[in-house]
Amino acid sequence: MNKENPISEILVNHIITGKLKPGERLVERNLVSQFGASRTPIREAIRRLENLGLVQCFPNRGAMVADFSPNDIENLYFLRIQLEQLAAKLSFSNLGPKEIKMLQEINRQIQFFQKRSNLHAIIENDYRFHNLIYEATMNKFLVQVIQTLRLKSYIVPFYRWTDPNEAKIGI
Q1: Would you give the end-to-end CA distance of the chain in angstroms?
Q2: SS3 content of the chain, % helix, strand, coil (to 5)
Q3: Which among 155, 154, 148 is positioned nearest to 171, based on CA atoms?
C-alpha cells in the first residue's frame, strides 16, 4: 500500500472488512471531514484505489466502491485460481522446513480464530499464509498480480467470512 497516503490504506481496510460496501459512493467532502484532510490526499487515495480496481470513478457522479457482475466474479476467480496454482508450483522448491513450519503455524492460527469467529484475525492470517507462498515464487510480477486480484476478490465474498461455516469454505 501507499505509506505516504495512509488514507488509501484505511479505505482499503474499510472495503475489505465491508464497512464500505460494493456500490457505495465515496463522497469527497465526507471523506475530507472524516479524515480531517484536504482534498488532495483524498483524491490521491481514490485514484490509488481506482488503479487497484477497488473503486470506480464516473464523470459527474464521483467515485464508488467497485461492484462486480457475476461474470466479473467468475473471471476474477478463474484467473486467481490459475495464478495461485502457478505460484504453488513455483514456490514448492523454494519452501524449506522453516517456511513449512511457518505455514503450519499460520494454519493453526486460522483454525483457532475461526473457532472464535475473529474475522479480522482470520483475514490477516489468511493473507500471511498465502503471501508466504507467493513470495517463495521469487517472481515479483506474479506476486503483484496475485495480490491485486486478492484485494479485488476480498470485496466479493466478505459476507462469507462473517459466517464461520462459510469462512472455512472460503479459505
Answers
A1: 23
A2: 70, 5, 25
A3: 154
The amino acid occupying position 148 is T
Distance in angstroms (rounded) separating the CA atoms of residues 169 and 122: 13
Res 130 pLDDT > 70: yes
> Rounded to whole angstroms, how far apart are CA atoms 45 and 144?
19
The average pLDDT across 113-117 equals 94
Q: Around Cβ 5, how many Cβ atoms within 10 Å?
A: 19
Q: Which of 93, 82, 106 is nearest to 171 (CA)?
A: 106
Interacting residues of 120 by C-beta distance below 8 A, sequence separation 6+: 17
What percent of the chain lies above the pLDDT cut of 90? 66
Among left, alpha and beta (phi > 0; psi -120 to 50; other), residue 59 is beta
Helix axes 28-35, 6-17, angle to 10 degrees: 110
Give the residue carrying C-alpha cell 462486480: 68
Output the nine-digit C-alpha cell for 102. Answer: 511457518
Using pLDDT thresholds of 50, 70 and 90, give the confidence band for residue 2.
Answer: very low
pTM of the model: 0.74
